[in-house]
Amino acid sequence: xxxxxxxxxxxxxxxxxxxxxxxxxxxxxxxxxxxxxxxxxxxxxxxxxxxxxxxxxxxxxxxxxxxxxxxxxxxxxxxxxxxxxxxxxxxxxxxxxxxxxxxxxxxxxxxxxxxxxxxxxxxxxxxxxxxxxxxxxxxxxxxxxxxxxxxxxxxxxxxxxxxxxxxxxxxxxxxxxxxxxxxxxxxxxxxxxxxxxxxxxxxxxxxxxxxxxxxxxxxxxxxxxxxxxxxxxxxxxxxxxxxxxxxxxxxxxxxxxxxxxxxxxxxxxxxxxxxxxxxxxxxxxxxxxxxxxxxxxxxxxxxxxxxxxxxxxxxxxxx
Length: 319
Ligand SMILES: Nc1ncnc2c1ncn2[C@@H]1O[C@H](COP(=O)(O)OP(=O)(O)OP(=O)(O)O)[C@@H](O)[C@H]1O
Ligand SMILES: [Mg+2]
Known about the structure:
Blueprint: E1 6-18, E2 24-37, E3 42-47, H1 53-60, E4 68-73, E5 76-77, H2 86-89, E6 90-93, H3 97-100, H4 107-117, H5 122-135, H6 152-164, E7 170-174, H7 182-197, E8 202-207, H8 210-216, E9 219-224, E10 227-233, H9 234-239, H10 244-251, H11 258-265, H12 268-275, E11 301-305, E12 308-312
Parallel strand pairs: 3-8, 3-9, 6-7, 7-8
Antiparallel strand pairs: 1-2, 1-4, 4-5, 9-10, 10-12, 11-12
Helix pairs in contact: 4-5, 4-6, 5-6
The chain binds adenosine-5'-triphosphate and magnesium ion.
């Protein structure tokens, strides 16, 4: 029996894509992912666009079936051993605002929907919707407003309330602040910290921003090209990155304004990483430490440092 809240084992996801001459080539959006999440823990998934973060989040809420491997929740396979109850235990806040909530819904409708789906009785429904809307910072006078008339920040608070009303054990939050202005980002991040400290709910927090990861998470998993490169306690990973890619990320930390960031960021390398889905390490074309062996992705190396467990996937630690 696994003692982890969530355990991802040898998980791979391939999408079929149209190749040249109508050949359908499988495209590995995730390749051999191994990851665990504990009760009350916040794990950040950190990686650039296309690294596979959303795909992994969607597998965990059962929107995508893995091509290979397994996901266990409380020791049971989420696709074969969990039924409808699973949607009570694990909720998701979506990256794409349109996917998140029907804009025609009122705030109240949006947040009560998960409770209605689970046939929660009227009194409890009323209590829960009100409790979590207020908790998320939505004023009573907004309860009957349509979601489409809310500001971005208010909308995100409604999405948060909606993800909490069933009092889940785990929330998957997919870049919940990246569409917001800096000042708002800070406010919403405070709310995610409260999900951890007050509500003690576990979180898988998806972000492309190392600062955001640092602000909210206990541990971080660094992803690139559908692979995990490194996992460890967030503070340690930032202080002493083990993987050359993590070091590269820290050295090329985008400037804090998202506007400036987008202008600075566009390099060819993002494209390169996206297209590299072979047997090798996706960072090897840019890596200062590359060796011949890097054409094969390395096995996991576990390093214990002062009782802290770190994992890194780099041949450098296997020599
Ligand atoms: N349904 C799909 N069909 C084909 N390819 C897909 C599908 N969904 C995702 N992909 C591809 O899989 C890769 C990983 O996508 P994913 O959305 O998981 O990345 P991400 O890390 O969330 O990126 P972003 O930061 O842009 O949100 C991308 O190259 C994407 O184009
Ligand atoms: Mg994404």
